[in-house]
Amino acid sequence: MTLTVQPHRETLGLKDGRLLIGGEFRETDETWTHHHPATGEEIGSFAVASVQDVDEAVRAARKAFDEGTWPRSRAGERIKILRRYGDLLREHSDELRGLQALDNGVPLSFGQIYATSVGIAADIFDHHAGWIDKVGGQTLPPYQGGDHLAMTFREPVGVVAAILPWNAPFVLFAQKLAPALAAGCTVVVKPSEYASFCVIRMVELLIEAGLPEGVVNLVTGPGNPTGEALITHPGVDKISFTGSRAIGRRIVEASAGTMKRVSLELGGKSPAIVFADAPNVGLAAMTCMGMVTMGLSGQACVAHTRALVQRDAQDEFIAMAQMLAGAVTFGDPFDPAVLASPLINGKQLERVLGYIERGQEEGARLVTGGTRLDGDYASGNFVAPTIFADANNDMAIARDEIFGPVLTVVPFDDEEEAVRIANDTEYGLGAGVYTNDVRRAFRVSKALRVGMVGINGFQLEPHIPFGGYKQSGLGREGGQSAYEAYTELKTVMMPL
Ligand code: NAD
């Protein structure tokens, strides 16, 4: 494998990363060195924010909220700056995609596709800029008689802590900062330690777009001390988090003391239900296998990792999924022919290989894959696209979020059984239904306890609410309700 980081560092002008607090970039004594997941090569270092640094960042955001112009600014001013930022993101798209390829190894070929795309992040800023002059309150008539007026107003929730995972840094940055800034909040953002360089650049561009001092603050570093200091800080009004269920739970605990508002986008074990009458069983197989291999190698929260396939359609489904598995290419993420990324780190590699071993021990049939790539790929965290068939829903490979290129195929006989298996999970993020029967498609969609159902296909767009039931999270990103989640509702009453 031929990736050499240094020339890309030079072309992209990559510098060591600094914090941004109250409008000033600053270095720290402690730093974090990031290594490329495809080669283990050192990419660079960035500042680790201490408890003290986080405290200063929150205070700067508080000051900008309590005393600054942003929460009190005219709608037109905020719209202008957020739209300018969207344009800046588009102008810097190639640079940002390159930084992402260095950070988390997502290939350039995939950096145009929804979750990893800069263009969609820009669209999300445009979308939320559009709400600024449209979301207001209500005027309510008296209920029990009398002559009085009640009105509601939407006001910004305050200081927002935005905590990001590493897998889709652009879109997830936008899903949090666009509505927060549109609503007039101030923000402290913490990227993942495995994808910080591209987020640092996104923050620099926000300043270039004209955001006033202290409105956005950046603290880089790992979950501990940086993330912990942020979620336990009494000066934070709202935490908006995307990441694992374990840290989501920790955030709910840590917020209880000061009753922080919380939005959580967590994991999933999303089922795709493929009926034998699907318009195209092969296409359904390509969609599921594509979601667990292409681009992020299955490190995607909403990937359809559990394929529930009606028995008569199984052979066709598996044959097509296997064909796609064979077509996935790995290697240097800057090579346009490369389609999939490595796993993010050694810990994740061991975890995925552990699940593959467990699937075999539990009696599922390994159709393809199941191994780490060797030879040229041995220095990276690459796992071959893997398919398990004849699995049942009690197996760990059907229950746990593996976050790797593993598709688990579970057979079913009828609609009732399919719905029961699909809902037999602690998660509830997304699902797919593949059938030619329209009434069945809607019946099953209604019965599924998930936040998003794709019928014969799945698409994500800035205005479509995104989020999950059950332990997949709290709240939704995208659309009007996401904007409103960064506001408080105030009621003002007056006798006439
Ligand atoms: P993670 O939970 O390990 O880390 C997420 C972020 O939390 C990182 O910035 C990390 O530094 C920080 N963090 C860790 N410990 C913390 C603590 N104690 N306090 C505060 N912050 C802390 O998740 P990850 O490995 O980066 O991402 C993978 C997970 O994200 C998967 O479970 C995936 O399903 C989920 N995810 C969900 C969505 C969604 O929209 N539902 C999207 C992408 C990823």
Automatic annotation (TrEMBL):
Molecular functions per Gene Ontology: oxidoreductase activity, acting on the aldehyde or oxo group of donors, NAD or NADP as acceptor
Highest taxon of source: Bacteria
InterPro entries, sorted: Ald_DH/histidinol_DH (IPR016161), Ald_DH_C (IPR016163), Ald_DH_CS_GLU (IPR029510), Ald_DH_N (IPR016162), Aldehyde_DH_dom (IPR015590)
Keywords of this entry: Oxidoreductase
Keyword Oxidoreductase: yes
Keyword Oxidoreductase set for record: yes
Domain (Aldehyde dehydrogenase) ranges: 29-492
Listed Pfam families: Aldedh
Enzyme active site: E265
Family: Belongs to the aldehyde dehydrogenase family.
Protein name (database record): Aldehyde dehydrogenase (NAD+)
